[in-house]
Amino acid sequence: MLNPSATNLLPARQERLAPFVAFLAFFMIALSSQALAADPESFVSKSQERLTAARQAPSGGPQRSACSKLVGDTFDLNAIAKASAGQDWNVYSNRLKGKLAEAIGTRLTGECLDLLDDRIAGEAVVRRVRQTQGGASVTAQMDNAKAAVFVWRLRPGGALGWTAVDLSVDGRGLVATIKADLASYIRTRNGEIEPAIEDFARAGRK
User: Fold this and answer.
1) Quick check: pTM over 0.85?
2) Does domain 40-202 sit in CATH 3.10.450.710?
3) pLDDT in tens, 160-180
């Protein structure tokens, strides 16, 4: 409650706005807290923590499960599948859309398992963060100046606060690579999409 004597000192319009201004200030503080909690830079450290946990897991099934969880938490597989399929996405049945997203998850899990053997020392350093339409772009590199440069394209949401819809390593994009590989399998299968997706998934199984 406002002190009545203090209220009388306020012009009528300011008196009416005072509760709104207080609410707006509270709302902006809340927004700032959410922004800090979902800082895109934190995505890099959180994904690296999951990779470290996968490395520390026993080999075999536990490491595969850890990598599968890392992939599911880190990447928007449906968005990547849609971008990789390009214009053909509109003619895919829902079953094929799901199958392609699952196949991409399988391939990325295989890549993760390969990465567990790469014992690069050091930590990822964020070099640049910029806002993009509907998300953010984060450039990171291991703390070795000669290490590969990773550029994550992120959208808000997901287990890590942000979810990757694309990733490039030294300029080589994930979506572009998957798109080219998938197109190659489709050509090999004479335009048959489902067996091409199966071939694509099989190439990533370990």
Assistant:
1) no
2) yes
3) 999 999 999 999 999 999 999
